[in-house]
Amino acid sequence: MIQRVAQSLEMTEGGTWSELAAAHRDLVPGPTSPSGLANRYSIVPYTFPATLQLTGLGAISDALVGRVKWTNPAVLLELNELVLPTGDINAEWLKQWRKRAAETAIAMIKRSLTIEEAVFGDASVQKRSKPVPVQQPAEPVEMEGPVIDHY
Questions:
Q1: What is the number of domains present in the chain?
Q2: pLDDT in tens, 64-101
Q3: Is 35 helix (H, G, I), strand (E, B) or coil?
Q4: CA 99 to CA 140: how far, in whole Å?
Q5: Phi then psi for 141, rounded to 5 degrees?
Q6: Which ranges constitute the DSSP H helices of 8-133?
Q7: Organism's domain of life (predicted)?
Q8: Which sign, positive or negative, has the C-alpha torsion 27, 31, 33, 36?
Q9: pTM for the structure as a whole
């Protein structure tokens, strides 16, 4: 979580907003783990080839990964749309965000398969295996109640 100071993270040992934003932008590991501890296992000094960058999901999403600051007017506007005056979550807004996120993820997966095939040709996974079609479920998955992720 990025603090109001806009440079400090909740775990100050985890680096700065600038370092985290650069890591998310460049799709590389941050300077330390989210807890601020040194990365224990090997880290690659380059973008992992199968990394997918999901963009265009909205201002809140961009703020979560440090692409924009929480004080950005677009973020504040989206937060006002997401959280109703009663304090409840706008279920329709969230449903539309999830739909957009799923469509974007599927498009990026398809794109990565195309890139992988272009790079590796006959040795690509697509050529050497029976590919599984990537498609969105016919029925949207409905979540009951608020979803709380414990990361």
A1: 1
A2: 888 888 899 999 999 999 999 998 999 999 999 999 99
A3: coil
A4: 8
A5: -75, 120
A6: 17-26, 59-64, 73-82, 91-120, 125-128
A7: Eukaryota
A8: negative
A9: 0.64
